[in-house]
Amino acid sequence: MKDAAFELNDTMGNASLREALSWHERHPERPIPPALPEDGIGEQATLDGLAAAVLGQARGLDSPLAFAHMDPPTPWISWITTLWNARLNQNLLHPDTAPAARDLEAQVIQWLSPFFGMNGGHMVPGSTVANITGIWAARELRKVEEVVASASAHLSVRKAAHLLGLRYRSVDVDAAGVMDVSSLGDLSKSCLVLTAGTTSVGAVDPLKLQAKAAWTHEDAAWAGPLRLSQRHAAVLDGIEAADSVAVSAHKWLFQPKESAFVLFRDANAAHQALSFGGGYLAVPNVGLLGSHGANAVPLLATLWAWGRNGVARRVEQCMQNASDFADRIAGNSGLELWARPVTGVVAWRSRTIPADILQARLPAGSTSLTVLNGEKWLRNVAANPNVDIAALYDEVLKATV
Question: Which of 76, 133, 186, 212 has the fewest CB atoms found within 10 Å of its own CB?
Fold first, then answer.
């Protein structure tokens, strides 16, 4: 039986989900005023007016056909703990305002670091900030002068190099979208960024290149949680020798935006290099952020509720969904599969219908587009454990007749 994100919720979680998603059906849409009103309409009326837009018009990421992006459905325990955070408004910049929240973030990092061979780190809002932070540490600790990444690397890597005043060198990829190691050249003054799960096709760069560079940063924003699965952890073998690792918890750890973390093999040295003090601070401010909310609380709650096995089962279900869908595409002579999915991303196209036309025929939220070698391909991403692969493939068949 499919072990999906909402199928394992208890009665309270399922009732809460149904209540939230049906709110908009009971409240008519109220036009939002074009300018800030002088007098407000009150909290309840505002919620009634917003329900149709926020709930009614949002994309259902837990839908049986939601298979388009790296954005997962979230478990109900994360909704509750996110509301706690909003009520308390803790600021981890100041220990006096968030003593428990600081300890909880440290606990989450302590739980997760060993899976990646790291010994510490900190939470950030997303992998863009995590990548900037890891490369910043490389500049401070190893005096790197350039950033080297594959042509398939996330745009945040190039952005980090620009912000940090470092040269940026893009390396070609092979036919599978993996970094071509034959063109790396001298890395003695380089921060080498290896991607574990590229955005377009989910490719994994050779992760055992760490010794070749002054610093190696692993962008595991997408595929990092595979390390919690005994079945799939080996896909990321070699990551444990990196100097820093970025992981987005709001992808395969099923967290609300904005939740990610950056880890270091020597967190003490990295944090010391990235720390700034001030007369108004009781402790040094570590990393890029100033004020910093308690976004570790929903993550800790989810991990505590599910355990490693619970996370692994959901990720493994996603991987199986991608494999099953790829099998169907490969078995259809009218369709073309880019490659077997490595980390749950399936790229494919019709042999006769242009990708953008076919995508427009498919249900909204089911399939996205990507560009590979200058050509448009369809893209499906296994972030939703609840997807119905048979139903989605039926939609593909209807769209290609």
Answer: 186
In degrees to the nearest 10, what's the CA dihedral of 373, 375, 377, 379?
50
Nearest-5° angle of CA 320, CA 323, CA 324?
85
Residue identified by tokens 């002088």 is 38
DSSP 8-class letter at 182? G
Q: Which residue has the tokens 């089911």?
A: 366
- Overall number of domains in the chain: 1
Taking only the tens place, the pLDDT of each residue in 178-232 is 999 888 989 999 999 999 999 999 999 998 876 689 999 999 999 999 999 999 9
Element (H, E) at 109: helix 99-112
DSSP per-residue codes, 49-105: HHHHHHTTSS--TTSTT--SSS-----HHHHHHHHHHHHH---TTSTTT-HHHHHHH
Residue 211 has φ and ψ, to the nearest 5°, of: -70, -15
The pLDDT assigned to 93 comes to 83
In a domain, 144, yes or no: yes
CA 27 from centre of chain? 33
Domain that holds residue 276: 80-304
Tokens 């369709």 correspond to 335
The count of C-alpha atoms lying within 13 angstroms of the C-alpha of 311, restricted to the half-sphere facing its C-beta, is: 28
Q: What is the DSSP letter of 248?
A: E
Rounded Cα distance between 327 and 142, Å, is 45
- For the chain, residues with pLDDT lower than 50 are 1-6, 8-12
Three-class secondary structure of residue 284 per DSSP: coil
Residue 122 in domain = yes
Residues in a beta bridge with 394: none
332 assigned to some structural domain = no
